[in-house]
What does this fold into?
Amino acid sequence: MGYWKQDEDGESFALDSEMIWGDQPADILDAALKKIVSVFLRDRNRLPTKDEVKAGLLFSLRTGLKPESFRAEAAAVPGVDDATT
It folds into this structure.
């Protein structure tokens, strides 16, 4: 499992970028996207658009990246301590 540099458009191995992404976060997001698509197909009988997924992610990021939102979850992950949050 590794991490790599990535640009804001999602292009991997962008050596001039300070943004990173990794195998495990990508796997988690892939699984979440599959669930989102399944719910859209069930409830709306169509796939979500790229813009809908991006807007939904931004909606969830408003609270999802606040330290108090994930401190308890991070504490339950082996190798993650409170000093990193």
Summary: The longest strand covers residues 3-5.
